[in-house]
Write a structure and sequence with these properties.
- With 388 residues, the protein is mainly beta.
- It has one domain: AttH-like domain (AttH-like fold).
- The protein contains 2 helices and 25 strands.
- The chain is globular and about 60 Å long.
């Protein structure tokens, strides 16, 4: 097995130190240089003693697990969605809450500001017709209720950015975020669509061959939404579909995994497709790559690495970081009769924040006829400047 070079381990240590230092209020993309890769921060393989590990399938319990898991090193509540106005203008958005522990669980600190739990949130809106993407980030410790999460009724928040249930049930739910510096805002009501889907093996999603190199992972793949969105001077009434990915674990990647490509696609025929392709240093897909196809009634069909392929077709090079991102993909799931293209709705949806990744809205085209058959989101990590 290939071991990570010291520079990668050192980068991960720097990432942890930086999170400790950058415990601030809202910061915009222009105020913070990119530090390291998302896969580095959320896939650390060092200092794991004392944390719980994701080991056996079947342990997810809802609604309990909508809430936080401080005994694990990291977790996230990942909302993405595609929205449109009454006159068919299209937007994409991301609102993500991350929790990251800087040390293993222990006695409760006497001073809440010494909590090892750090919350980070990313908020982005893409104006597709305007070919523009705006993104902002925040950090906070969970002291004085500035940040935190709970199970029942569900809520996760950082300052006045939040996802919060409107009743004792998980849904309906309200998403709210705004930022004056980038002049973007979102206020959505999410409603129930399909049941929650347990990914991997009954919720245990392996990211490597060793025990514990896994996360707990479930999704709400299709939540109808409506509300308001502001981009610059214009506020819009919007409606659309939202996807939630929910994961928590400790050391979520195998040592030889350098990054991943993930898609969550909502097809017009009512099906939803989630795939993630883990890559090694050569760019080859790893056997832990996995996915799900959820039918219109919400029934999940598990997909292994042998059930699908993802091949990049076109690239965009970031003028800000020099990173060459694949922004068009050929996706084939032969045993489901799917031949698709996923193309970035806007090429520049790079997230050059404290951590570097690409996250953005994509159009889904029929590989046979080229007609749009859905919309979705694409996430990519681990790409180096000018990589092939």
């Amino acid at each position: 097995m290939m071991r990570q070079p010291p520079v990668v381990v050192f980068a991960r240590l720097l990432a942890t130190l930086a999170v400790l230092i950058w415990v601030t209020t809202a910061v915009s993309q222009s105020e913070r240089p990119p530090l390291t890769e998302l896969s580095d921060v959320l896939g650390s393989a060092a200092g794991l003693e004392g944390y719980k590990r994701a080991l056996l399938p079947g342990e997810i319990q809802l609604p309990r697990d909508h809430g936080p898991h401080p005994d694990y090193q990291s977790e996230w509540w990942y909302f993405t969605g595609n929205l449109e106005t009454e006159d068919d203008a299209e937007f994409g958005f991301q609102l993500t809450f991350f929790r990251y522990a800087t040390r293993a669980p222990g006695p409760t600190p006497a001073n809440a500001w010494e909590s090892p739990q750090i919350y980070m949130a990313h908020f982005a809106i893409t104006d597709i017709a305007g070919d523009e993407h705006r993104v902002v980030q925040r950090f906070a410790r969970p002291a004085g209720e500035v940040a935190g999460a709970r199970s029942e009724p569900f809520a996760v928040w950082l300052d006045d950015w939040s996802a919060e249930s409107l009743s004792e049930d998980f849904l309906p739910q309200r998403l709210r975020a705004h930022d004056a510096a980038t002049d973007i805002a979102l206020d959505l009501i999410l409603r129930d669509g399909k049941p929650a889907v347990l990914q991997g093996d009954a919720g245990l999603s392996a990211k490597g061959p060793d025990a514990g190199n896994a996360s707990w992972y479930y999704s709400k793949t299709r939540m109808p939404a409506d509300g308001t969105l502001r981009f610059g001077a214009h506020e819009h009434a919007v409606r659309g579909l939202v996807w939630l990915d929910r994961e928590w674990g400790t050391s979520a990647l195998g040592d030889y995994a350098t990054g991943w490509d993930w898609v969550g696609l909502q097809l017009q025929d009512g099906r939803d497709l989630m795939l993630y392709q883990l890559r090694d240093a050569t760019g080859a897909a790893l056997p832990e790559s996995s996915g799900s196809l959820v039918d219109a009634q919400g029934v999940r069909r598990a997909l292994t690495d042998s059930d699908f392929t993802m091949h990049p077709l076109d690239y965009w090079t970031s003028p800000a970081t020099g990173t060459r991102w694949p922004t068009a993909w050929r996706i084939d799931v032969p045993n489901a009769g799917l031949e698709l293209y996923a193309e970035a709705a806007v090429a520049d949806q790079e997230q050059a924040l404290a951590i570097l990744y690409w996250e953005g809205s994509v159009n889904v085209l029929d590989g046979r006829g080229g007609e749009r058959v859905g919309r979705g989101y694409l996430e990519m990590t681990g790409y180096e400047p000018d990589s092939p």
